[in-house]
Amino acid sequence: MEDATERRGIRRAAISLAVPANSQSLRRHNLALVLQSIAHRGRPTRAQVAGFSGLTKATVSSLVDTLVGAGLVISGDPDRGLVGRPGSPLGLDPAGPAGLGVEINVDYFSVCIVDFTGAVRFERVVAGDNRQRSAESVLRSAARAAERALDEAAGSGLEIAGLAVAVPGLVDLDGVLRRAPNLPGWEDVEVGERLRDLIRQPMRTASCDNEANHAALAELWFGGEPPLRDFVHVSGEIGVGAGIVVGGELWRGASGLGGELGHVMVEPDGPMCSCGARGCLEQVAGQEALLRAAGAPARAATALGAPDGSTRELLERALAGDVRTLATLERAGAALGAALAALVNLVGVPAVVLGGLYAELAPWLTEPVMAELRTRVLSFAWSPVALSVSPLGGTAAVRGAAGTVVRAILEDPAAWFPEMLATS
Ligand SMILES: [Zn+2]
């Protein structure tokens, strides 16, 4: 028995000597495995991490020491009644690398910093109509706001690993904003890179994605309990944003330009849409369409950009039982439900999360949305679709953006700290 173990040991050593790249990639993989076990299992001990990961306790202990040394993991006080290190609960280090998120929207931009545990450490919304300004001018203002956030973070000892930007438009897989229907002049802009150039502090990475994708990621990482792994997050803003998560991963489509639920046709003879087609969901359930139909002043303003603006008025009218507003929300809910039912029939996501303005309007939207899902989703009898309301509020997208930076480190810590691959 011992001979066999020894032989295996010798063989492993021989392999690692012959092909060092393999032992490095194994270590890289195991570092990520251990880090993710710590992140997702709620303060496990080394012995528990060994159980989750299938690695030996000795290997886990050595990898944990490396992660502690890199400033990614902290080892808490040993649990009472247990002796020595094995009982110490492990957690992500709140002083570890943090993420900077910036959201550029139609009538505000916002800045957020989340620490390595995902906790929000800084958040600021700056209202102002960005349609009246050039992309460059908006990005310069956002860069100054980001610098103030970075100064504040540095004051509390946080180091920022990277930047991610959320924008209301079509972003391809290279992070280029191709078009933002409600932000004229924002065409083919490398928003992440440009903002990185404008921020005076150095930033290791910069990326850009659609706000709806970032909001869905925020829901995946920081949303309700128990966490969902398969869902569509749909939020009503000036457009309709949808982010689809399948198997715990954001579904981007081959080009990265998919998920445009707002341009699914819901009324063949409906109004013309800004996209050039007729009867899109956005024209029935988008914010401007809702305001128009309810007879409220149709100023295109978001709840974050104009907290006392037209969306507040829409809510007040609904609360007051205004008949026209209630009929508008009934129709919008049915259209939203029909579009969502088409998505569920095709993709099979078992849960729908209402975010943004739809979260606030949920008391009036839930019933008509559910009625359509019940009628139209073929598999509903065996696999009912769960409808829930996002707890994250209007800043989900910027929080998701900041979260992508931290998540990238959790997924492959050695890519960020290559020195961890050197075995001691
Ligand atoms: Zn359209």
Description:
This protein has about 425 residues and is of the alpha/beta class. The chain folds into three domains: about 1-95, Arc Repressor Mutant, subunit A; about 100-215 and about 400-410, ATPase, nucleotide binding domain (Nucleotidyltransferase, domain 5); about 225-390, ATPase, nucleotide binding domain (Nucleotidyltransferase, domain 5, 2-Layer Sandwich), CATH 3.30.420.40. It is about 45% helix and about 20% strand. It has helices at about 1-20, 20-40, 45-55, 55-70, 135-155, 190-200, 210-220, 280-285, 285-295, 310-320, 325-345, 355-360, 360-375, 395-410, 415, and strands spanning about 75, 90, 100-105, 110-115, 120-125, 160-165, 170, 175-180, 185-190, 205-210, 230-235, 240-245, 250, 350-355, 385-390. A hairpin with a 7-residue loop joins strand 8 and strand 9. The longest helix is centred in the C-terminal third of the chain and has 25 residues, at about 325-345. It is globular. It binds zinc ion. Zinc ion (ZN) binds near residues 263, 273, 275, 280 and 282. Zinc ion (ZN) binds next to loops.
